Amino acid sequence: MARTASENVFEEGLEQLRSAVHRVDGEVRRLQRRAEARRERFEKDLRRSGEKRWKQARNQIRSLQREASERLEKGLERTLDLLPLASKRDVARLDRQLKSLSKKLRDLEKRKTAAPPPPTATA
Q1: Does residue 1 form part of some domain?
Q2: pLDDT at 18 over 60
Q3: Residue 2 in domain
Q4: What is the pLDDT of residues 31-74, one digit of tens each?
Q5: pTM of the model
Q6: Distance in angstroms (rounded) separating the CA atoms of residues 39 and 63
Q7: pLDDT of residue 123
Q8: Looking at the domain assignment, is residue 29 inside a domain?
């Protein structure tokens, strides 16, 4: 059976439409893969940027903590310098001296109790 010209035109148009749909489908898939790759790169860059900013913030916080601690210590030191207080080193030295004197006193007391009484003079 012979096809009419209108049938041939219809078949050709249908084939062109199928071909166009196939090309568009391939192009849509290609664009979807490209968009997915861009999205993944964007998320990765965002994570890196967030991590980098978090590290910077954490380092800045630590630096501020150290600076605040140093300032507090210096302020406390200046305040304590105004008061007539002994330093820790001075207190430790005095404690050693007190222990040494206490030991010497105990030794003298032991000698006194162990020694015979002195003779008394008779008139």
Answers
A1: no
A2: yes
A3: no
A4: 999 999 999 999 998 888 889 888 999 999 999 999 999 999 99
A5: 0.40
A6: 36
A7: 54
A8: yes
Q: What is the dihedral of CA 13, 19, 23, 25, to 10 degrees?
A: 90
Residue range(s) defining the domain that contains residue 82? 16-107
Q: What is the mean pLDDT of residues 16-22?
A: 88
Count how many domains the chain has.
1
Q: Which amino acid is at 75?
A: G
CA distance 29 to 37: 12
Task: State the Rg of the chain over Cα.
Answer: 49
CA atoms of 13 and 11, how far apart (whole Å): 5
Cβ atoms 33, 25 nearer than 8 A:
no
- What is d(CA 85, CA 76) in angstroms, rounded to the nearest whole number? 13
Any domain includes 115: no
